[in-house]
Structure formats: structure tokens, C-alpha cells
Amino acid sequence: MTDDRTGGTAENAHTTYNADSAQTPHTSHTSERVDHNAIGFDADRALAPHRMMPPPAEIADLTTRLVGHGARLVSIVEAIPEAEHTVRAKGALKDWYDLTDSGPGPGAMAHWVYMRALARMCRTFMDYLRERDREGRQRP
């Protein structure tokens, strides 16, 4: 497994390291901690440009990690009243269930596209939760 979390994604400045929020105390109803930095690094790696596409074994590993990250984020987002969800959060929840119910299509490219879609949804959930934090809204 290749997991060079600092190499190869310098062009993607979406995720920045923040020691204060690396292991936030936000928990879901399953009491799982959310490591925003780990999710961000995995999403950045998954969303690297095509010319930096990871090998199939790393795609499989990243996909597994992103499914885990996404499941934790979904449980937090779903614990927030639906009336408070943004349009993007609602769309990401729908996409999450559509994609995780069907899985990737056949072939290496389909697995890469699937992994990237999961990464985008994780980012959307994290952005939504960060926005709520900035607004001073409590998480469940």
C-alpha cells in the first residue's frame, strides 16, 4: 500500500493541516471521533489529477478508508435536523446512499471515479460541518 500523504497533492490546496482540529471531539451517536486531517488528506489523495492516479491497490485502500470516513460523517450530518441541512448536504446524503448502495462499476477507471465521488462527498460533509461550527451551531 502506498500512502504518501504529503507527496503528490501539492496542487490541491483544499485541505490544510490544523493541529487544533486534527482530532476534534465531535462525535456521532456511535461515539466515533472524526479526524478532519486524515479525511482531508485521503480526499486530497483521491482527488489528485489523473496523471497522478494511484495504483489499483491504493485506490482500493483509499476507497475503503473513504467509505469509513463518509459513514462517520453521514451519521453526524443525519443527527442534525434535516431542516438545517444545506442543499449541498442534502444532495451529498442522497448521492452517498446512491453510490454506496450500488458500488463501483466494472474496471479500473470505474473504481477510480467511484473513489473520487466518495472523496467529494466527504469534503462536502466536512465543509457543511465546518460552516455550522463557524456559525456557532451545535453539533449533535
Shape: globular
Mean pLDDT: 79
Largest sheet: 2 strands, antiparallel
How far is the first residue's CA from the last residue's CA? 35 Å
Strand content: under 5%
Spatial order of the strands in the main sheet? 1-2
Q: Work out the oligomeric state of the chains in this entry.
A: single chain
Explain what you see.
The structure is a single chain. The chain has 140 residues and is mainly α. It has helices at 36-46, 56-79, 87-102, 108-134, and strands at residues 24-27, 33-34. It contains four helices and two strands; from the N terminus they run ββαααα. A two-stranded antiparallel sheet has the order 1-2. A hairpin with a 5-residue loop joins β1 (24-27) and β2 (33-34). α1 crosses α2 (56-79), α2 (56-79) runs parallel beside α4 and α3 runs antiparallel to α4 (108-134). The chain is globular.
